[in-house]
Design goal:
This protein has helices spanning 35-44, 55-58, 71-80, 84-92, 102-107, 203-212; strands at 25-29, 48-52, 63-66, 96-100, 108-112, 124-129, 139-144, 154-159, 163-167, 172-177, 180-186, 189-192. It has 6 helices and 12 strands. Helix content is 22%, strand content 29%. It is α/β, with parallel strands linked by helices. Strand 1, helix 1 (35-44) and strand 2 (48-52) form a beta-alpha-beta unit. A 7-stranded mixed sheet has the order 2-1-3-4-12-11-10. A 3-stranded mixed sheet has the order 5-6-9. It has a two-stranded antiparallel ribbon with strand order 7-8. The chain has a single domain (14-212), classed as Class I glutamine amidotransferase (GATase) domain (Rossmann fold, 3-Layer(aba) Sandwich), CATH 3.40.50.880. The structure holds glutamine (GLN). Residues 68-71, 101-102, 105, 130-131, 159-160, 162 line the site of glutamine.
Length: 220
């Protein structure tokens, strides 16, 4: 397990510094994972954000962060909290998602090495393989080149991360690590196999929020 350092969110820089549409609320799915850290980063970016555990809390959110965790556990909690249908409906109705790690697994079309029947919402045209980095690299830190957020590399942490094995034609690869996609965008959805919230760099959240102001693209 890599050192989990939490640092104060920094000011966003580069092109990702554009802001979200006024008056929106961003939900953070609060079943497992770094809910507090995501809320803190969204707060520093000046957007209203709230934890979401119920359909009532999801209602009214224009966007949703799906934190990491253990995707099979999150899937079980989604069932227990009766959130699958509300999530599907919200996303169909235009709620955009920022997914990290297990969240990305949840949004994938296909999960390799998942539990039998593990929930895959099929929002993103990607196939992911769970826990694909192998034991010796279960968790590691990296400085990622991510031109979409600016010239400086983004410090991130991979924790028992999945790999993105295939991407469909509407999926744009924003960053790679060891040649494999680790940050992808489909329409206004942004999906990462790593955790940007642990290092507190706000640029990916800012990129996501900036995207909410754009007209829907292909695959949204
Ligand atoms: N290994 C986890 C899973 O398969 C994902 C890890 C994470 O979200 N950091 O669900």
């Amino acid at each position: 397990m890599a050192t989990r350092r939490v640092v104060a969110p920094r000011e966003p820089g580069g092109s990702a510094g554009r802001s979200a549409p006024d008056g929106i609320t961003v939900g953070v799915l609060a079943l497992q994972g770094d809910v507090r850290e995501h809320l803190a980063i969204l707060g520093t970016l000046g957007v209203a954000a709230r934890p979401v555990r119920t359909a009532a809390e999801l209602a009214g959110c224009a966007a949703l962060v799906l934190p990491g965790g253990e995707s099979s556990t999150v899937a079980r909690l989604i069932a227990a909290f009766e959130l699958e249908a509300p999530l599907r409906a919200a996303i169909r109705a235009g709620v955009s998602c920022l997914a990290t790690c297990a969240g990305t697994i949840l949004l994938a079309r296909t999960i390799q090495d998942g539990l039998p029947g593990q929930l895959a919402l099929g929002v993103l045209d990607i196939a992911v393989r769970r826990n694909a980095y192998g034991r010796q690299r279960d968790s590691f830190e990296a400085d990622l080149a991510l031109p979409a957020v600016g010239p400086d590399p983004v410090p991130v942490v991979f924790i028992r991360a999945p790999t993105i094995e295939t991407v469909g034609p509407d999926v744009e690869v924003l960053a790679r690590h060891d040649g494999r996609p680790v940050a992808v965008r489909q329409g206004r959805h942004l999906a990462l196999t790593f955790h940007p919230e642990i290092t507190g760099d706000p640029r990916l959240h800012a990129l996501f929020l900036a995207g909410l102001a754009l007209p829907p693209g292909p695959g949204t």
